Amino acid sequence: MPKSTHHQNVSSPRGLAQQSVRCMSSRRSQTGTGQHSSPTVFPEKRGKTKSLKQSDDGVANEGPEKVKAHEHRIDIGDESSDLLGYDVFCGKLALDKKAKITSADERMGSGTGNPDSIDARLTSKALIWGSHMLRLEDVISVSYNSGLRHFLVHAYPVTKRSCGLSCFLKPQRIRKDFRFLAPSTEEAIQWVSGFADQQCFVNYLPHPMVSGKKQAPDIVTSEPLFDQLYFKCKSPPKVLVILNPRSGHGRSSKVFHGKVEPIFKLAGFMMEVVNTKYAGHAKELASTVDFRTCPDGIICVGGDGIVNEVLNGLLSRSDQKEAISIPIGIIPAGSDNSLVWTVLGVRDPISAAIAIVKGGLTGTDVFAVEWIQNGVIHFGTTVTYFGFVSDVLELSEKYQKRFGPLRYFVAGFLKFLCLPKYNFELEYLPMTKEAVDSQGKVLEDQEKIDMSDLYTDIMRRSKTEGIPRASSLSSIDSIMSPSRMSGGEFDTSGSTLASNEPSEYVRGLDPKSKRLSLGRNNLVAEPDEVLHPQPHLSSNPNWPRTRLKSRTDKGWTGLTATNDSRGPWAATALYDKEDISSTVSDPGPIWDTEPKWDTEPNWETENSIELPGPPDDVELGIKKELAPKLEEKWVVKKGKFLGVLVCNHSCKTVQSLSSQVVAPKAEHDDNSLDLLLVNGSGRMRLLRFFVRLQFGQHLSLPYVEYVKVKSVKLRPGINTHNGCGIDGELLRVKGQVLCSLLPEQCRLIGRPARDRM
Ligand SMILES: Nc1ncnc2c1ncn2[C@@H]1O[C@H](COP(=O)(O)OP(=O)(O)OP(=O)(O)O)[C@@H](O)[C@H]1O
């Protein structure tokens, strides 16, 4: 069988890869500034005018067929050169518009090149050929058939709508497959290796004639070199997809199979897709799944509700620590997806799928709402709320079938017409100014560690390390905001940056309240009455624990047990102990009445938990220790509240026209909760609150308080509706509930928008 002469220059596949690397390093050294140096921009790209002129000339010379190839032209003279990263490989490429590759094409000599070949280079951020650029962020994978000069780049670049509509419609991501022809097979391999080096999945296939079992004698297929070719790229992720077919008014299946699945398939994902059959099914699945079948994560397709179920399923397992380390991917296909929109800045299914394919992990705080009376705990990542909003959530369930995403508006309107009064007893533990400042400093100082190694073996990792802390009210805005009523097609535009503002201690409080929250006093007279904390019903050490294990049984209880202050649970316990000593009338939460963990025999060995120590914190790039402050006191309030909202992140709403947020200063990973109190009662107050919310001015209302807190305890008054919403799930409060953060974070798959740039 004849062999192409160009093959003889390459001694081994490894050799090819090494050549690619050599090219990469030589390019890097040319720039002289190391890995992240400014790239060498082709001479013709240096100036905008020149670039445009040249490309125009090029188009004119290429004829009609080639003109179309310029539809992706990007004037990189406009781009900051830093955006292009460092050079990985360079050479000649031709964009091949042919649908099929003939063997004649493949027989072309290596040295002859192609008449249409143009200078091209692959950098760590983009593939640039001629005056075109394709961002690697938009590249899903590369397909390459052994022994060919062609390779196919699969991408979803953001494409502007046609001229007339571009002013009204947002840009869309549309799939484009670019078929490139390299001058030789060796160079094709080097290009593909370059993509693999940049973490693009390579779909490496046998030669088409081999796979088709009709081997042509003139085609180079028996070359052992290519049969053994090995591209050093990430292995295909193995995930469990949990799809709520009722989400998004029944559109979620279509969204997943039509838009998302093809992307995952291109990226080589090995998926098991399970449709939920009933409410609670996702929780069951997450609580029982064998992680060996989905070591790279669980992908939730639906709204915030399905994510909440999965989280609660994971945290109800006996292997809780391992469970919370399982990455959670979110494909927004529900009525609202506040979590993924707020935290990752993604609100359409295609962008979410790409973010998942690109990988990386984003640590996100998890809060626990504990029913103190019976020990039941429900977890959340977005918000827990009481008062008007939870009533609306309850009423909206009636209208789910009839109104779909409009149900919140309908229920909100009806509830507004017959608005009850809500009374609550409330205690909260404010963050101290010092804690907020030091937290802010740590967050500022920290170097964001690249957690790109998503597809590592989670099982292995979780056995050797804890999950350290790093960093909806989906429906609230919709209740009074007809702007979100669209609920129609999913937005397929590119993502928008999430807020990056630093956290602040207390805002929207009058000076007195500020002083009080700073811990100089633990009682607040407003709105109605000052309360002295009552002994908790649960002070009986033998109170029952139901459903979930008590904290003393749970993995993270070990943190408090050993008086470790590395997490909020620990911190809370310590603060509570301080409360006992400093406030005679407050015996502190229930766990103070229970045996001290550090006196229990063999606690450390029997319940040992790999605490999130410094190395892990370094890995996630965040140190989250909050030293307890002696002067911290629970602030106690009792009275009428239209709403009590405890937010874990800023709670952006996907469907709102404006980008208003409920808790503008909240961060998903700042180790604190943001408490929003809407004091008082009455429709006028409520209306003003929601109107102001649309414009992001709700915090300026005199009856709205906003405090950064560690924990909140709440007890509904007599005759007050006792609904409690957690991430859109409705529960009932009996007695008192306590809301605090867990010491460990969950991990969302994908990076925040600002880190993906
Ligand atoms: N097959 C099913 N049948 C009925 N209910 C289900 C099913 N699967 C999940 N659920 C429940 O549906 C609720 C809502 O799910 P999800 O949040 O995914 O969709 P959504 O209501 O469209 O979105 P959002 O909550 O953002 O409005 C969840 O609380 C879940 O328990």
Automatic annotation (TrEMBL):
<dbReference type="InterPro" id="IPR001206">
    <property type="entry name" value="Diacylglycerol_kinase_cat_dom"/>
</dbReference>
<feature type="compositionally biased region" description="Polar residues">
    <location>
        <begin position="7"/>
        <end position="40"/>
    </location>
</feature>
<feature type="compositionally biased region" description="Basic and acidic residues">
    <location>
        <begin position="63"/>
        <end position="74"/>
    </location>
</feature>
<keyword id="KW-0418">Kinase</keyword>
<dbReference type="GO" id="GO:0006672">
    <property type="term" value="P:ceramide metabolic process"/>
</dbReference>
<feature type="compositionally biased region" description="Polar residues">
    <location>
        <begin position="492"/>
        <end position="502"/>
    </location>
</feature>
<dbReference type="InterPro" id="IPR017438">
    <property type="entry name" value="ATP-NAD_kinase_N"/>
</dbReference>
<feature type="domain" description="DAGKc">
    <location>
        <begin position="234"/>
        <end position="373"/>
    </location>
</feature>
<dbReference type="InterPro" id="IPR016064">
    <property type="entry name" value="NAD/diacylglycerol_kinase_sf"/>
</dbReference>
<feature type="region of interest" description="Disordered">
    <location>
        <begin position="477"/>
        <end position="509"/>
    </location>
</feature>
<dbReference type="InterPro" id="IPR050187">
    <property type="entry name" value="Lipid_Phosphate_FormReg"/>
</dbReference>
<protein>
    <submittedName>
        <fullName>Sphingoid long-chain bases kinase 1</fullName>
    </submittedName>
</protein>
<dbReference type="GO" id="GO:0016020">
    <property type="term" value="C:membrane"/>
</dbReference>
<feature type="compositionally biased region" description="Low complexity">
    <location>
        <begin position="477"/>
        <end position="486"/>
    </location>
</feature>
<keyword id="KW-0808">Transferase</keyword>
<dbReference type="Pfam" id="PF19279">
    <property type="entry name" value="YegS_C"/>
</dbReference>
<dbReference type="Pfam" id="PF00781">
    <property type="entry name" value="DAGK_cat"/>
</dbReference>
<keyword id="KW-0547">Nucleotide-binding</keyword>
<dbReference type="GO" id="GO:0005524">
    <property type="term" value="F:ATP binding"/>
</dbReference>
<dbReference type="GO" id="GO:0001729">
    <property type="term" value="F:ceramide kinase activity"/>
</dbReference>
<feature type="region of interest" description="Disordered">
    <location>
        <begin position="584"/>
        <end position="606"/>
    </location>
</feature>
<keyword id="KW-0067">ATP-binding</keyword>
<dbReference type="InterPro" id="IPR045540">
    <property type="entry name" value="YegS/DAGK_C"/>
</dbReference>
<feature type="region of interest" description="Disordered">
    <location>
        <begin position="1"/>
        <end position="74"/>
    </location>
</feature>
